[in-house]
């Protein structure tokens, strides 16, 4: 059966199919997410537990250790790390890449429930977990500053207004607020005064807990009406706590201000944020998996003026870090390289074919193949990233081969005197198996990459699939659209008048053929010398492969420097903040 003949005899249907491929690819191009690299989700779960006031050693032995024993029984855990600070413990669990993250989360929750009996009984809340992707960096970092409002009030505004608004933006996954904590009243007890009055720490804690609660007050009623007794038990300012009576000694009331220093402060004093040396509250924005980074950042920036209008007048919203400029620049460079490579391929084809009509046929095949690949990328949930665009750039040289082979074979029959239609029918039928074997052999080269496991396999799978898809689309176009276009665009040789470019290039090609003939004859006469050169070249390449630097990815300059300072174990937070 002559498969291309079906499309040669139905030019309208073939044209509509080709236009459909192009339109679907153009629509998919605008729907594809944009990212620097392929999205590789690491099945990672982070577990957090808090015990206020406990030192790091207590957190590690009493909280982290029981949880780790239970987590170690979960199947598929490849790595488990825990970090304990004063009052908090964080445990990070990383699973096999093939492990379903939802199933792993259920196992983690079951392990937390099993470990609850071994945890301290005064643990305020059960340990919590959340799914994280360590490879997903924040896309935007926003700072809040004010010359009139303190960071506790800014933090309160950021969590109640800004965090809620930004979380509703399309493409935003999570929004974290840092650099401070919520406003709170801090009671710093004086041990000397407690000893003087014979008051224990538990006595003070009990008084504070019983004072600041909402309790029912009851009702007053008669035969016709009922009145609810209401009173506000919530104390929110330090001045309201200072007059709280802790106990009585010698008939006199001992107030909280007599044994403690009560101030308006924050829940956690060991948290601070600075931007250009000024106290700031940081709002960290993460994207949803698969969301377009550039479009998400543009949406957040678009809504920032509205969010700033809802904040106190003295609050300033500053964008500290934007992840998109390096991505925009790198993708722009790769897209320019793709366009240039396609243009160079078409130009080379024109220089050798030297006819505009003949050049249009492989040019259309290249364009349709590359644009149609975007549709397959969309169906595979791939991104527009450096690797996928690089695959299309490389594919530019591959996709033109099939069209040229079909074109040359049809032209050969036209030179024998056949009409364009007869030449297209006979030439395409004869070359179908050759084009099919060429394309399948190119795709077979990337099968090992498709079968690679681990992080490297997942990372380069998108590259291999994109390149293979472009080759397969080129195969389909070369067996359908290309022979159909040859029928209507090619003309017999005698109908052409050779212009000056044809004559000049023909002379140049003849000289090249003559030079190649001379060098080939010389190489055949000195076969031993050429064999020695080949072996020497092979050995030099082996040596260069051994000494060349190796790495996972080329080093790139994103114009950003990040530093970390680690102090001594006994240094205080205030000292670290001052330095």
Summarize this structure as a short list of keywords or feature phrases.
alpha+beta, 579 residues, Alpha-Beta Plaits, 56% helix, four-stranded antiparallel beta sheet, 16 strands, single chain
By CATH reckoning, the class of the domain at 3-34 and 327-496 would read Mainly Alpha
The strand order across the widest sheet is 2-3-1-4
CATH superfamily of the domain at 3-34 and 327-496: Multidrug efflux transporter AcrB transmembrane domain
Please count the helical segments. Answer: 19
Classify the helix fraction into a percent range. Answer: 55-70%
Question: How does the helix and strand content classify structurally?
Answer: alpha+beta
What proportion strand?
Answer: 15-25%
Please provide a written account of the structure.
By secondary structure, the protein is of the alpha+beta class. Among the domains are: 3-34 and 327-496, Multidrug efflux transporter AcrB transmembrane domain (Multidrug efflux transporter AcrB transmembrane fold, Up-down Bundle); 41-134, Multidrug efflux transporter AcrB pore domain (Alpha-Beta Plaits), CATH 3.30.70; 501-546, no CATH class. It has 19 helices and 16 strands. It has helices at residues 3-8, 11-31, 56-71, 101-115, 151-167, 191-197, 201-211, 238-242, 256-259, 293-309, 324-353, 356-379, 386-415, 420-445, 447-450, 454-489, 500-525, 527-547, 573-578, and strands at residues 44-50, 77-85, 88-95, 128-132, 140-146, 172-178, 183-189, 219-221, 226-228, 245-249, 252-255, 260-266, 274-275, 278-279, 281-287, 315-322. The strands form six sheets. It has a four-stranded antiparallel beta sheet with strand order 2-3-1-4, with helices on one face. A four-stranded antiparallel beta sheet has the order 6-15-5-16, with helices on one face. It has a two-stranded antiparallel ribbon with strand order 7-12. β8 and β9 (226-228) form a beta hairpin. α11 runs antiparallel to α12 (356-379). The mean pLDDT is 83.
